[in-house]
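User: I'll paste a sequence; please echo it back and then give the predicted structure.

Assistant: Echoing your sequence first, then the prediction.
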Amino acid sequence: MKNENYISWDEYFMGIAILSGKRSKDPNTQVGACIVNEEKKIVGVGYNGFPQGCSDDIFPWEREGAFLETKYPFVCHAELNAILNSVKSTKGCSIYVGLFPCHECAKSIIQCGIKEIVYLSDKYSGTDSDLASKKMLDSAGVIYRQLQNKIKKIELEF
C-alpha cells in the first residue's frame, strides 16, 4: 500500500520557495520564489538580497531613514532573482512565492511570460504597490491565487 501522507505539488513548490527564502540575510523579511514549468519541473529559484558584488556587510538593511540609507534601492526581490536565475524559459510557468509580488516584480513576471502566481501572504493588500501590481496582472491575464494548503509545517532533519 502506498504512503498516503505526502504533500501536494503546490505544497512542495511552496516549500522550495520558503526554503530558498531562508538564504536571505534580510533581518526583517525573508522571501523566496520558485518557478515551475508546465511539466512540474523547477526552472528557477531565488530569494531577496543584494545584487552580486554588492556586499551585504556594506549595504544597509534598514527599513527606515533616508532612501539611500535603507535597503529599498538596493535589494533584488525573490521573484526577480528567480527569473534571473532561471535555467530555461519561464514562458507559461508558475511562480510560487511567500509574499504577493510588488508592482516592480509584477512587471518582471509579466514580461518573462509567467502565467500564474501562487502566494502565501498578501500582507500589503490594498497598498498602492499592491493595487498597481494587481491592475497590471489582471490586464496581462496573469492568474494569481493564495495557496490553500492542508499542512502548516514541514520539518527537515539532517
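Residues 9-21 form the longest helix (13 residues). DSSP finds four helices and five strands in the chain.
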